[in-house]
Amino acid sequence: MQVPDHSTIAEFRRRHETAIGELFTSVLGLCGEAGLVRVGEIAVDGTRMRASASRDRNRGYESIVTEILQEAERIDREEDARYGDARGDELPEQLRTREGRRAALKAAREKLERERSAAVEAGEEVIAKVEVNLDPDRYEVRPEGRRAWLREARRVVEAQRVESPWPVPRSRRARLVEAKRRMDEELAVEHAANEWYEHYRATGVDRLGRKLNGYNRNTKPYSPPLVPEGKINVTDPDSREMRTQGQPNIQGYNAQAVVTEQQIIIAAEVTTRSPDFGQLEPMVNAALGELEEAGVSERPQTVLADAGYWHTNQIEHLLADGFRVLVPPDSMVRDGGRPGWEGGMYSFMRRVLSTDRGRELYIKRRHSIEPVFGQIKHNRGITRFRRRGRTAVRSEWRLIAATHNLMKLHNHWIAPATG
Predict the structure, then answer these.
(1) 16-30, 83-97, 226-240, 333-347: which range is least confident on average?
(2) pLDDT tens across 107-153, in order?
(3) How many beta carbons lie within 10 A of that of residue 266, not counting itself?
(4) Using the 8-state DSSP alphabet, how is residue 349 labeled?
(5) β-strands 247-260, 58-60 pairing
(6) CB burial class (10 A; 0-12, 13-18, 19+) of residue 355?
(7) DSSP states along 36-83
(8) Which end of the chain offers a freer environment for a tag, N or C, measured as fewer CB atoms within 10 Å?
(9) 4 vs 42 pLDDT, higher one
């Protein structure tokens, strides 16, 4: 009656992370062979899952540096206890108390900001250069303001982290250092994006083909920060604070899924962005790739998603590819249409959803994908991820989706015997 130790299972999952994630496609292939994968209508949705991290571990740059200093002080104390007190490298008197360290850190931050401001005025480089290629034609929204460029730069760096992920270090000290590195990187990206925007304003043209010629007199001057702002989680730096409707925010991931009318999951991915905006086309493409890998030749005809997935460009791309797309432009909690969302695709989609056939198709979304999340989170009790880091969490989510499909396959096999 011996059983594997939990640490043995955890190490197995870590070593075989990629292979475990690929099990999802293998199980989907088995479901396809059994005739369970019928993809006439597919539904896309996401659910927020808790990370193996606490919201209390979200830290700002100053707090992270403070923790690094405290960790260094702890190591110094241990070395003092081991090798003796008078070694000649003790902390200065002003850094031996918590109040002294806070005052010293504040003074150091202010000094750093003054030095960097002076260096910027002198035309010197104070932020490490990073390679960020911002193409306005590929933006999710029109690049009409500086915030759009900064938002696009953050999206680009997130995409780079997806392609070249860094595993979350095991030791606390290493995680602090990694969190600091990421905040420094994001600051450098913000400076690079600001330079791109300045160049765009000086040389670009508007939608009518007129030169922008810099700024108008009402434009406020802007200088990017010289010290990283915002917060990052020092337990799982990839996780984010997620908004959940009617519930307190959670520290976690946005687990995305594409489901058939028979509640078979045909795509399972994770994102670190709380909104579902921008995930429609990537998830449909992920589903097409999974179906091809699993040997399922049938092609989806109708794509269903809620109002959070509204993205005009992505809907137009899917329509051009031959899909029937049903996504309401208006949220269920809003009375009437969104201000400014009139005409064009908005009015077209409202007309389609108001028809008997449109309502009949769209109601299938709620009956297909929402029970899947209920089965996983309520019936099976899977409400949080156990591993840390984007790639580890993706592998775990795909394993969860694979076991969901296995249960569907098992019920299909035993149905004749019990019928």
Answers:
(1) 83-97
(2) 776 776 777 677 656 655 545 555 556 655 555 545 567 787 788 88
(3) 28
(4) H
(5) unpaired
(6) exposed
(7) ----SEEEEEEEEEE-SS-GGGEEEHHHHHHHHHHHHHHHHHHHHHHH
(8) N
(9) 42
User: What tokens does 289 get?
Assistant: 């790739």
Q: Quote the Cα angle for 401-406-409, to 5°.
A: 130
b/e sequence 134-160, b meaning 16+ C-beta within 10 Å:
beeeebeeebeebebbbbbbeebbbee
- 335-338 long-range contacts (CB < 8 A, ≥24 apart) are none
pLDDT grade, residue 215 (50/70/90)? low
Condensed to tens digits (0 to 9), the pLDDT of residues 327-337 reads: 999 876 566 67
In whole angstroms, give the CA distance from residue 161 to residue 164: 5
Q: Given phi > 0 = left and psi -120 to 50 = alpha, else beta, which region is 155?
A: alpha
Looking at the whole model, is its pTM more than 0.90?
no
Parallel/antiparallel/unpaired status of strands 41-50 and 302-305: parallel
Stretch 368-393: mean pLDDT: 94
Contacts of 282 (CB under 8 A, 6+ apart): 269
Q: Tokens 């070593």 correspond to what residue?
A: 15
Q: Whats the size of the chain, residue-wise? A: 419
Distance CA 189, CA 403 (A): 39
Which helix (DSSP H) or strand (DSSP E) does residue 268 occupy? strand 265-271
Contact present, 324 and 301 (Cβ < 8 Å): yes
Q: CB under 8 Å to 333, separation ≥6 — which residues? A: none
